[in-house]
Design goal:
4-stranded antiparallel β-sheet, 3 helices, 173 residues, Immunoglobulin-like, alpha+beta
Length: 173
């Protein structure tokens, strides 16, 4: 008789709370927890997703996306350089930049259209090495990414300010 009384008193909300508490008590799986930051700027929704915790030597997934959330087509100047760049800092010092060591075709920037609700997504993952190829130690790092264009609809922009995601802190264990 005791068990049926307990089962009747369990509500869906209390069951969810119990499961969440149980997972947290077991470590919570932070290494598998993805975090996303999103902000709007220059008619775009800018998102950055990565893992909050990673193990030493594992690739840190970094996904950057930019979506036109305006009612009209947006025109950006692209070409030659990468369309999106990610960066990892330790404190205020850049230790890794996605474009370091890569070569890109010499192409003059040209206008490209991004239609309403069109999204562009980029995999900018980090191998936990610095710009010279050395494995970084355990610690806390800040990841950021931005859309690499000099103008939106003919207006000059600063990509690292106007078209950057909100940074995310990542811990390497």
């Amino acid at each position: 008789m005791f068990l049926p009384g307990i089962l009747r008193s369990i509500t869906p909300l209390s069951l969810i709370a119990w499961v969440a508490l149980s997972l947290t008590a077991c470590g919570g799986g932070d290494e598998d927890t993805l975090i996303t930051t999103t902000r709007e700027s220059q008619s775009f929704q800018i998102s950055l997703t990565t893992r909050r915790v990673a193990y030493l030597g594992d690739t840190v997934p970094i996904t950057f996306s930019i979506k036109n959330v305006s009612a009209g087509t947006s025109t950006v100047m692209l070409g030659g350089a990468p369309e999106a760049i990610s960066q990892v800092k330790q404190g205020n010092v850049e230790i890794w930049n996605w474009e370091t060591g890569k070569t890109f075709p010499t192409v003059l920037p040209s206008p490209q259209s991004i239609a309403p609700n069109e999204a562009r997504t980029y995999d900018l993952s980090w191998d936990q090495k610095n710009n010279v190829g050395d494995q970084m130690p355990r610690g806390s790092y800040t990841i950021n990414a931005w859309f690499n264009t000099a103008s939106v609809n003919g207006n000059p922009v600063s990509p690292q300010i106007d078209l950057a995601a909100e940074p995310i802190a990542v811990v390497i264990q």
